[in-house]
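Dear support,

I submitted the protein below through the web form. The confirmation email said the job was done, but the results page showed an empty box. After a refresh the structure appeared. I'm attaching both so you can tell me whether what I see now is the final result or a partial one.
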Amino acid sequence: MRTHLALLLTSAALTLVPLSQAADSNAVNSSAAKSSAKKSAQKSQTYTVYAAGDIADCKKKPAPQSMAARTADIIVNALDADKNTFAITLGDNTYPVGKPEEFSNCYDPTWGRFKERTLPSPGNHDYAMPKALGYYNYFGDIAGPERRGYYATNLGNWHILSLNSNVNAQEMQKQLAWLQTELSNSKQACTLAFWHHPAYSSGGHGNNENMKAAWKILAQAKADIVLSGHDHDYERFAPMNENGDKDEKNGIRNFVVGTGGAKLTPMFLPKSTTEIRDNSSNGVLKLTLHDKSYEWEFIPVAGESFNDKGQGSCH
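What the results page shows now:
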């Protein structure tokens, strides 16, 4: 496509092509190359997301001095520099009970600085207010349709699914049916899902049985990444299958990132699939989403040192 040809190879011999014809051929080839390159660029965009849960807590300090402000500082410059960069919240967006004033006085001056580039999910503290009204009033349409708390979008070649881990049994069944339909209809090569309560965790709350059904559906569809919060720590697991057993080939890589600003909490003994964990540093998880692969990096707030990075491929 990129080679300029003035000689055509036939089965009998080399045949000289007139320069004018060669020039026309080159022009066509150049135009085709540009068109192909443009299509390739459109299909192969890289996106970056910064994720954390358990974020805005201003009970003891005003918003500018809170840890949420420090984790927000990591994200805001990156979003300003790249239109293909977004933030993901993993629930418990404010403390203690998700009141509207917690969003306006604590979340908005911190993570609210990039509200329009945020993909949120709700947590149990958000639902401490009836129907999570503070959360839904603040995020509006960004939080998904009909205040149900789950939705889907695409970032390049990635299918992004935000789930609601706070719903009752009846609503959970509706959500799971929606999830199966989304996965069946997806044309994207890679899948990332996120919600608040982790299906697997060695933090203080441990595994959440209510999200095991969603995990199983995602594992059967060979999803690539799941993100959660709830436990105020960072934990990365080896890829796991639908039963939570190690499966390097087809398993989901699971991250717990409850380090967005709230006070960090103790952990229990690590799981057999735990690869690395920490409860000493607040920070955010940076995911670089390529066409068929991804990179991860935990970035601590200034002054703290824990770090974790690596890469993986989509199934």
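Response: this is the final, complete result; the empty box was a page-load delay. The first strand starts at residue 7 and ends at 9.
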